[in-house]
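Re: that chain you flagged

S.,

Sorry for the slow reply, it's been a week of failed gels. I finally had a moment to sit down with the sequence you sent. For the record, here it is as I used it:
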Amino acid sequence: MKHFLRIAIAAALCLVMIAGSALASAPDGSARTEPGALRVYLKTLGAPPELTLTLAGSYSVGGSAGFYFDRGTQIRVFARSGAVWLYCGGLTMDMGAQVTLTRHRSEGENGVYIAGSPKNGLYCGSLELNADGDALQVILVIDIEEYLKGVLPYEMNDAFPIEALKAQAVAARTYALRRRADRGSKNYDLVDTPADQVFYGYDPSWQNAVAAVEATRGLCGVYNGRYAYCYYTATNGGQTALAQDVLSARGEDGYLDIHDDPYDLENPRSPVTTLALRKDLEGAPELLTGWLIDAAAERLGAMGYSDERADIRPTRLIALTPHDTRFGGANRMYQYVTVRYELEARPMEPVYAEPTIEERVYHAFTGRPYDRKLTGYAPGAWEPVEASFECEISVYDQLKDELGLKLSGLDCELTTVIDEEDVFVIQMRRYGHGVGLSQRGAQTMAGSYGMSALEILSFYYPGLTFETVSFADETLPPLDAMPAAASGEEILPEPSGNEYVATVELSTVWSTLNVRSAPSTDAPILTELRSGAQVIVAGEADGWAKIRTGSVEGYVSSQYLAPEDE
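Prediction finished late last night. Pasting the structure tokens below so you have them in one place:
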């Protein structure tokens, strides 16, 4: 049956404010308890002028029992000149600069579907809708464990081993709580993008991720009495990094260190870019040989050789040595590779003017020499140069960007040079910032070595302690159902004669079907029907169905109707 907005009494709107805090012990020494809700700014929606919401649960306006909606209700929300407008069931309402759609207790799925959201997931929480001129800002107030179910499958593949997923769940939970504690004056705690953690809402098909969240419920990492940031990365390239180096992170990261990670290195899915250079330089990139030529030209000129590019030819690589790490210390974020090489060049030889006829005759008859006139110098025949040369190459500018060894947008890749019999192999690794948990490393640890989530976490966050925190349950007051006659709910008439009942079936829950005054796409639109609405079909012709409900009669495209008995 089609459901409309239930309105009994206009009520004051409520702003749901969720307080966050740093970790604190209860006064009696019992288990710590924290608020359970996060405020997530749905930044992936952009700044839309309007949105279509389909309620898959029980919602009210501002928590008012007198202003609430049935499950399945479709609402359009608009921002106009700094005000939020709601349109539902033929009514358009000015809600002021901000309105909250408050979630209430409900059986089954309980959330909102938002048209245009990245993965069509269910957003299981209350929605704060703010108007900024003609644009909407949407903030989801959601229980932290429900939030994690919309994070985990998008930050780590659902097919990963369960212990890796559990480690990821703990890291993501801890990060979210630290961000909430440090949120400052913002009206939200996190954004739903990689700037914090990717969040696309709940999808029950990601069963492993959901199980990992449930299995670690409340488990968090603590350092010096506070939640840690618990950064994580796709792959660290075989060595962990410090947040203060790569991310210019706030606060302490004493729970991190720089150490080798053989598990990440072992994983064949950890990305690596490679440049193999034959020692005889056959097939070497022109850019590279050009750098070698340029580095040798000035010295060759001083040695009596031509300093022109065309007269210099690198012939053999002797050694490639990476050096000078970013931030110093034991990391392998080398900034330069020194190339030592040999070459051949053309020596500059003197050029003399040809003797005149008079000089030739004089020489022939007298046998006396004539003065040779030096006119300049010219390159002679190619010859090996009895010296080696060095060229310093920038890792992040030249190897990464110009020779295409780039992996990350950050300049933090690790560089390794492998000296094989006839080849030098340059490898660059690390996809992401390399700080904290490596997802590919965790995959190997759990999948190949049977390591537990806590063993994985202790490896990547060696200075953390792990505690289980109790979160206060989100208060979801029930809303009693109102009788149809009192609520204004539309009742579908009984079909007569050859009429039959059909259901509107559309591709998404927020799609709508136009009801027109005549069987033509040019005819005026009388109203719209949501997916799942029921109608009485009075007849069909040429792809159009004549339909009626309790409030409208018109025509719809018959392809979107499914007879009730099918």
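What I noticed first: The longest strand covers residues 312-325.

Talk soon,
D.
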